[in-house]
Fold this sequence. Notes:
Blueprint: H1 27-31, H2 34-37, E1 63-65, E2 68-73, H3 81-98, E3 99-103, E4 110-113, E5 119-122, E6 134-138
Antiparallel strand pairs: 1-2, 3-6, 4-5
Amino acid sequence: MSSSASVSGVLPPLTRPALIPHxxxxxxxxxxxxxxxxxxxxxxKPERWVENHVPExxxxxxxxxxNMMSFLAGPHACIGYRIALLQMKSxxxxxxxxxxxxxxISSEDIGRRKNIVGRPYVASDPGSGSQxxxxxxxxxxxx
Length: 143
Ligand code: HEM
């Protein structure tokens, strides 16, 4: 790697972090790219990662986890990703085992606020902030 980087002809030394204006990468765009993942890239399809079914096109993504940029890549990749995955898996397992979930509104009425972390909101009621109305009821557990 070179020890300097050019931005508009200026060469700042890379001994300090360089602020590059107007340069950003969208992790979501990479994670959902049809060119990389195929035409069903927006679909929830966990079997993509089973038995090495990931397309060749994503194998060059230098991500730390599952060819996705959610936890970034390289020296500043998330160091907490394993604990984050463990927490999400154990929480989802407990919730899905004990409760049934159903949307309380039409899926067409759900919008996504683009922020550092994307959040859902009700498109017909944007002033009420981030929310995802759901009907949640306990599963009928047979003992
Ligand atoms: C779903 C949960 C999480 C996501 C999506 C996530 C994502 C990320 C991303 C994208 C970065 C890179 C940020 C950047 O350099 O621009 C990062 C960095 C980092 N994450 Fe996470 N993270 C999660 C949970 C956690 C947890 C649970 C911990 C700690 C227990 C953690 C600790 C860190 C640390 C210390 C860095 C900075 C690493 C560095 O700059 O060297 N993260 N994370």
